[in-house]
């Protein structure tokens, strides 16, 4: 068994296709298939059930994956640590981000990282704040940028506050409130809303604000992205409450200050117990 064989198994498990996995690994499919077959022969089990149209992990394959991922990550970490000891920072920094990051210019930050440490690669994953924190705790992400309701902080990870922002109401230009500059939550309570999924941190801020005001509302549409939420507002299907810092995305829409509206805090989170050299290099580039 060697690391390359394990990487091939992980690629097939991710893509559910030998063809796509070979493409992702920059190798011909016959070579990838041969290496996986050799590994299965060595282990004495089949890792994949495959036909001409389907590829699925077997029970043995499912059992193989967690330790396989750890083995590859440990090898990459060992190489990064050795390079760091020699004065060169390399390896992969795995970053989880919410769909509405505003406190950090992420592309500019990654450009600075590449200029300072060209051997560092970056893996980006978008998700919910709670999922990102869980992934950091389990060592599957190095750094996260989170959005939480005011007064909340991530637990079980190192963190610091990046920025605070108030939500604004976003409505279509011909909405009944489009001539107003300010509004109270109670004036929005009868509207149909587009918002993030129920129980998600991105939704919690607004749900808490309505609960504290002893108001209820109808969330007619749920989306994991602000783009779709704003698209629904443009189609006059709903209104939305979103961070004011997203103002560049509000073109063609009308925004109103919400006097008793929700507040969001963006946090930087990371594994402070076992920070990789690549992650530490990125953290150093972030302003205090």
Automatic annotation (TrEMBL):
Gene3D superfamilies: 3.40.190.290, Winged helix-like DNA-binding domain superfamily/Winged helix DNA-binding domain. The keyword DNA-binding applies. It comes from the Bacteria. Keywords: DNA-binding, Transcription, Transcription regulation. InterPro entries: LysR_HTH_N, LysR_subst-bd, WH-like_DNA-bd_sf, WH_DNA-bd_sf. Pfam families: HTH_1 (PF00126), LysR_substrate (PF03466). Residues 1-58 form the HTH lysR-type domain. Belongs to the LysR transcriptional regulatory family. This is LysR family transcriptional regulator. It comes from Nesterenkonia aethiopica.
């Amino acid at each position: 068994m060697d690391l390359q064989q394990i990487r091939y198994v992980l690629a097939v498990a991710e893509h559910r296709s030998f063809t796509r996995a070979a493409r992702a690994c920059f190798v011909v499919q016959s070579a990838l298939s041969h290496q996986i077959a050799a590994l299965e022969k060595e282990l004495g089990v089949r890792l994949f059930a495959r036909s001409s149209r389907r590829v699925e992990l077997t029970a043995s394959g499912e059992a193989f994956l967690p330790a396989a991922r750890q083995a590859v990550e440990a090898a990459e970490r060992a190489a990064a640590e050795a390079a760091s000891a020699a004065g060169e920072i390399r390896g992969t920094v795995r970053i989880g981000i919410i769909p509405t990051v505003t406190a950090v210019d992420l592309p500019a930050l990654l450009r600075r990282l590449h200029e300072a440490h060209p051997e560092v690669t970056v893996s980006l994953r978008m998700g919910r704040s709670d999922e990102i924190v869980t992934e950091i705790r389990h060592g599957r992400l190095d750094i996260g940028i989170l959005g939480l309701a005011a007064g909340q902080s991530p637990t079980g990870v190192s963190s610091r506050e990046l920025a605070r922002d108030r939500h604004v109401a976003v409505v279509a230009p011909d909405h009944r409130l489009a001539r107003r500059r300010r509004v109270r939550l109670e004036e929005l309570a009868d509207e149909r809303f587009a918002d993030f999924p129920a129980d998600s941190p991105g939704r919690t801020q607004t749900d808490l604000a309505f609960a504290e005001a002893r108001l209820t509302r109808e969330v007619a549409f749920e989306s994991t992205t602000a783009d779709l939420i704003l698209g629904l507002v443009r189609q006059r299907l709903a209104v939305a409450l979103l961070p004011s810092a997203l103002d560049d995305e509000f073109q063609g829409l009308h925004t109103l200050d919400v006097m008793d509206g929700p507040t969001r805090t963006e946090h930087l989170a990371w594994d402070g117990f076992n920070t990789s050299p690549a992650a530490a290099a990125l953290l150093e580039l972030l302003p205090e």
